[in-house]
# Entry
Amino acid sequence: MAVIRRTDGASGAKIRLEGICPVEDAETLLALLLDDPQASVDWSACTRLHTAVYQILLSLQPGVVGVCADPFVTRWLTRAPG
Amino acid sequence: MNDLFEQFLLETRELVQSATEDLLALEAAPGDPEAVNRVFRAFHTLKGSVGLFDFPPWFALLHAAEDGLSAARGGTLAVDATLIDLSLEALDATSRWADAVETTERLPATAETEAGVLAGRYRALLSGEPVTRQADATALPDWAVALAESVPDAAGVALIAVRYRPRGDCFFSGDDPLGLVRKVPGLLAVSVEPAAPWPSHGDIDPYTCNLEITLLTQAARADLDTVLRLVADQLTVVDIPAETRTRSAEVADDREGDAIVAAILVEQVRVLASLGDADTGAGRLESCGRAAANALRFAGRPGEAACCEQACEQGPDALRDAIGAILTGREAAPSPKAVEEGPGAIEVHGPDAARTLRVDAGRVDALVALVGELVVARNALGHLAARAEAGEEASTLARAMRAADADIGRLATALHRNVVSLRLTPLSQVFRRFARPVREAARGLGKDVVLEVTGEETEADRGIVENLFEPLLHVVRNAVDHGLEDAATRRRGGKPEAGLIRIAAAQEGDGIVVSVVDDGGGIDPAFIRRRAVERGLRSAEAVEAMDEDAVTDLIFAPGFSTAESVGALSGRGVGMDAVRAAADRMGGRVSLESRVGLGTTVRLHLPQTIALARLMVVAAGGESYGIAMELIDAVVRRSRTAIQAVVGGNATVLRGRTVPVLRLADLLGHGGLSEAGPEALLMAVRTGSDSIALEIDRIEDRIEAVVRPPTGLVGSIPGVAGTTSLGDGRVLLVLDPASILAQDRVREGL
# Structure
């Protein structure tokens, strides 16, 4: 599991993506975002983002914190969900 | 909308119509070189006219079509169903866009894509390559253009654009589409968009892929294929050639584009040189400037376009100099084709250019001759006056006056008839529009249909001709759909496989008959009876008691549709009743004759001339009369005390004005019995510039009717504008209040 709901609020983000985020994470992320639509997502520790997870970010457009650690996403895809 | 634009729309529609006819003729006889020529010329002219305005996709499509047809004309491209269908589609698009620009002054949003696809198909025909591939390569789709333009610093390199639409269930089969894209070498741009609009948040399914990924790469095709081979079915791959990369899809060929632009510019210089006086000159100057600027902008030369626009404001000389400068800078080596075709490219008025009003010259000549006679007849009056002054005896004078009156009357009648005939239009205008729908209907149903048209030279009032198309189309579609049997049935019945539809027109008495004949299966009266009962139109007993004619007539009953199933063409339950209603509106009727196994004939009996009028039916002196609604200002009830006797009659105040009050019954000579109730029903009627109040007994009805001009006995009654028949068969006299009054004044004067 690489989707973590944070309660400490250190970076202001409520949801944190970490390490390799596989396809299953899409469902978790969706559930968390629907639960708290105002939540922002910190993806600075995410090293690889699956298409399905990216699709959730693209469709729900949550606030995104940090620079994604997945170089492909940073290079080509940061425009859209950011 | 300015004149030029109006003329453009008019001409565009005419060209579309004539090219459509020629294409259909070509389909029937592919070898006719003259028809190919005409189609080519139509497209050529269309392109030239469109080029005068700012519709680049439209121009690009017509340009591609012209190329295709030019090849067909030169014999290098076969005139086959593909080319004809494609050209018909191009004409359809043209006609739709003409409608669009007329209402919104711009092309619909889809025009660019559509033009690209159609133009691509033309080019595919020319290059002989499979359609889809070539279409993608030459007419770049929007998404590929957008991608390519997002990477401006990679000019001069051949690129590949890929659109990847992963299947919705791809996550289940373990795909990670972006994971694949990561592996594409030489990436220059990636864009991820939703393939379809996102569902509302609660409905998002995290495991359904709804993405469209587009990417641009400079990798070799083979390398790309290796990476994406497993999802090849979900890809659209487009090669973007190095040189056309940054150009938009519609500019086909730089060199030729320039040649056309040069030709347009040359023509503007020529027009400028012929500028006349300042009044017409200003408009022409403006249109020259606009044409030149549009042409340049189209060719991707906005700087020079702006120059032209500026110069245009400074006057003709400045514009001529500006265009000259652009031409000398650019016209280093015009291609031979440009020289040959250049002037034609802006040829707006082809040999078949539009004419707004088509009047046979002979008719105008006849009118002129009649007016001449009228002048002569009037001279006779002067002569008579001189004789009267000379004290000639009243009886001989009266005879001479009667003769003069008869002369002038004859001339007036002839003039009237001739003027009315100006409105007569040949039915060919309507008939020629049927080739296309019949062909399409037949195709859609897989039937072979031969369409015969006869009597198209028959003439009728424009109002009739213009309203004839729709009801007739309904009948014709019915005939193709339900009338004609399929080929197998026809063979068994010993008929030729191709069904025959004949549209014919003929003069009949003072009206016309338009008939649609098919040699199909006919209509079985037993079937009509059954259907009428099923539909609850009549009871079973009533249907049994009907004779054949009455049964056939049931087809025209609202809600009767003979189709077994709802067909694509007809059979929606709005059937022949709509045709009957249309015929009624035009003052005609429709009849149907059918013989089982032999076919059906539908006849529309229509008046040749119409004047549909809204009438108010009023009662006065125990009779009913019609008065044109347009003459009536108001109908009011007035207490008799509000009607005062004044010198010369009665008067009342209506809307702040004093108007004379006259009893209609008195005017018409019914006189005597006056129904003197406490209130009078007054109808304010305009007579020329005056208004009068006519007292009537009551209002009976408001109807819309065809008013026939007074002829025969009725023609001799003064004050009658015409006659019409009421629903119950009575003949209604339609009054002309102005002439009744004039008559009345004459009587009183005497």
In short: The radius of gyration of chain B is 36 Å.
